[in-house]
Amino acid sequence: MSVSREKMPKLPPVDFRWRWIIAIVITTLIIAAVLITTYYPQLPDPMPVHWNAAGEADNWEAKSLRTFVSLIFLGPAIIVLTLIGGQALIRMQSAHITDPGGAQTANEAQRTWWGLDSTMKHLGWYMFLINLAVLGLLLDSYRPTQSNWGIVITLLVLLLATAAFIWVIVKDMKEIEQKYPKTESERGKTWGIFYNDPEDKRVLVETSPMGGHFTFNIGRTAGKIWAIILFGVPVALLLGLLVTLVVS
How confident is the model at residue 107 (pLDDT cuts 50, 70, 90)? Predict the structure, then answer.
């Protein structure tokens, strides 16, 4: 049963987390200084600017500091912009939870707000680890002695960071649902980040009253297939690449 708009909780926009953005910028500048002062002087001309999956250089350009600096900051710039954009979207969503067409109950509004707050809280360290992995791989790529271990460690960091990110989000959501319980009709239909209801004919299910948040209904065969394709296949490919690199 929904409550009137007057009885809905007053929920402020979720706070921006600037500290992880600042941390990414600082670590990027430190590693960039190391690369420029230690690695750039010993680079050949032309210098490598791209590497294949085995870590071997497959594209070269004339040696220049501008090209080298652009190469260093490309990945971190994308990561910082992604983090800022993601946080801005979360903050915008959190400001309209109780608007018409949004949450229908006070508990639903609280669950949505705290879920967005949890995502905002954990997104920063997750992107920070991704940035470290990208910069670490760049450092390894310009080392005088090449090996596959730089790629292996980078892939492991990405896999573990992603698994940890998903785990803490699911854990937080379970704690939030205990504090702000779902109605009887909503219970028993979630399985981690997925929706599970064989009676529901939808394959893609909207999980947020604000829209834009969807998951797969693994209670349907098509939902299981799509979940495996979008989540299982990339993980399997990464694990297969890891095994190949370690063995080779």
Answer: confident
The Cα–Cα gap between 149 and 156 comes to: 10
Contact between 72 and 137 (Cβ < 8 Å): no
Q: 23-37, 87-101, 199-213: lowest mean pLDDT where?
A: 199-213
pTM metric for this prediction: 0.74
Residue 232 makes CB contacts below 8 A (sequence gap 6+) with none
Segments in 95-232 forming alpha helices (H): 106-141, 149-179, 221-227
Distance CA 213, CA 194 (A): 11
CA-based torsion, 196, 197, 198, 204: positive or negative: negative
Per the CB < 8 A criterion, the answer to whether 107 and 152 are in contact is: no
Max CA pair span of the chain? 70
Q: Which residue, among 134, 125, 168, 167, has the nearest Cα to 153 in the 3D structure?
A: 134
Question: Which position has the token pair 């707000």?
Answer: 113
Contacts of 13 (CB under 8 A, 6+ apart): 91, 92, 94, 95
By the 10 Å C-beta count (0-12 exposed, 13-18 middle, 19+ buried), 104 is classed as middle
The conformational region for residue 101 under phi > 0 = left, psi -120 to 50 = alpha, else beta, is left
What residues are paired with 205 via a beta bridge? 215
